[in-house]
Specification:
With 172 residues, this protein is mainly beta. It has two domains: 86 residues, Elongation Factor Tu (Ef-tu), domain 3; 63 residues, PRC-barrel domain (SH3 type barrels, Roll). The chain has three helices and twelve strands.
Length: 172
């Protein structure tokens, strides 16, 4: 059974010529939305995805704008609203050393070098210079861990285990 990964959500149309607004959930929009790429659109309450070939791609404000081959006007793409664009696992590329896909990090258990288990990664924030991993700690308390070399010492995605050396004040 093929595993699918979200790359974006169609939130609206843009203009009259079949362009759609996408809120991206990918670190690689230029790669995912490259002209000629095929994306699978999963609509709510539908079982089979619609295969869409990217015709054009551009960024505009906080959105990615796409058109698809064979869909030339607003009337043809309005029905795509609220659909989720996905790619199969086979289309995930190789990452460099110390780079990870979100799905590999989310769900990992985080432990300090002293052996204290902090909780599991529930979310990844991308506020600026580095990613921030959100850990759901004991009693539901959120702990924010910056993904930097000085803090994150070891990541084992196979074992779903992360070891950190907390900076002063990080856990208080």
């Amino acid at each position: 059974m093929e595993k699918w990964f979200n790359v974006g959500k169609i939130v609206n149309t843009h203009g009259l010529r079949g362009e759609v607004r996408v809120i991206s959930k990918t670190d690689f929009p230029q790669e995912r939305y490259k002209v000629g790429n095929v994306l699978s659109l999963f609509m709510p309450k539908e079982t089979d995805p619609i295969q869409l070939k990217v015709k054009t791609y551009r960024s505009h404000k906080n959105f990615d704008l796409l058109t698809f081959e064979g869909y030339e006007n607003i009337g043809q793409v309005e029905k795509f609203r609220d659909g989720i664009l996905k790619v199969p696992e086979s289309q995930l590329g190789q990452l460099k050393e110390n780079e990870y896909y979100f799905h590999e990090i989310i769900g990992c258990t985080v432990t300090t070098t002293s052996g204290e288990e902090l909780g599991k990664v529930t979310e990844i924030l991308i506020p600026g210079a580095n990613d921030v991993w959100v850990i759901k700690g004991k009693g539901g308390k959120e702990i924010l861990i910056p993904y930097i070399e000085e803090v994150v010492l070891k990541v084992d995605v196979k074992e779903k285990q992360i070891t950190i050396e907390p900076m002063e004040g990080l856990l208080t």
